[in-house]
Amino acid sequence: MIAAVLGAALLVAAAAWGVSSALRGPPQTIAQFGYIKSLTPSGKSYVLRFDPALWLEGSTARRAAREDGQEAFDYYIRNPEHSLLTYKVPRKVPVTVVTVHGPVTSTRITVAELAQIVKGRNPRHRPLIERGSARHLGYWVRTRIDTVRSIDQQYQP
Asked: Is the whole model's pTM more than 0.70, yes or no?
C-alpha cells in the first residue's frame, strides 16, 4: 500500500516538473536489422541467435561505406562485430520471407518453417529468392525486451 502511494506521488511530481514519459525507459518495441544465425525449438517457443547490423541509407550509407573502403548506392550494411544476441521467439510470431511469384513479394510463414529455411531446407517448396538458406538476406526483427514480436526478411537488390 505504501509503495503504491509513493509510486503515485512520484508520477504526480514528475508530471508537475514536466518530466516526459519518454524519459521512463526505452521504446516499447525496438526494430533491429541483422542476420539469423540459428532458430531452434526450445519448449513451447524458439531461441533466436541474431547478428545485428546497421542498415544505412542516403549520405549516411555513402559515408560509412567510404570509411569502410566499400561502395554504397541506395543502402549500405555495416556489420563490423558479428556478435550474437539471443532472443525468445513465441511460435505464433508473424514472419515474412522474400519470394518470387513472378514479382518479388513477401510471403507470410510460420516460425517453424523459418527455422527449417534457416537450416537450408524448404519444406513447403516456396519460390524463395534465396536458395539454400535464409542467411544471406537480412531480417528486421522487432523485439520487446528479450522477446521477438515479428520477423521480416529484407529484400536487397
From this structure: yes
User: Measuring CA to CA, which residue among 128, 75, 81 is closest to residue 100?
Assistant: 128
CB 139: neighbour CB atoms within 10 A? 24
Give the whole-angstrom CA distance, residue 66 versus residue 72: 8
Q: In this predicted model, what pLDDT tens digit does every residue of 104-154 receive, in sequence order?
A: 999 999 999 999 999 999 999 999 987 655 557 899 999 999 999 999 999
Q: What is the three-class DSSP state of 64?
A: helix
Kind plus residue range of the DSSP H or E element containing 118: helix 111-118
What does the alpha-carbon distance between residue 155 and residue 70 come to, in Å, rounded to a whole number? 20
Buried b (16+ CB within 10 A) or exposed e, 16-28: eeeeeeeeeeeee
Amino acid found at 119: K
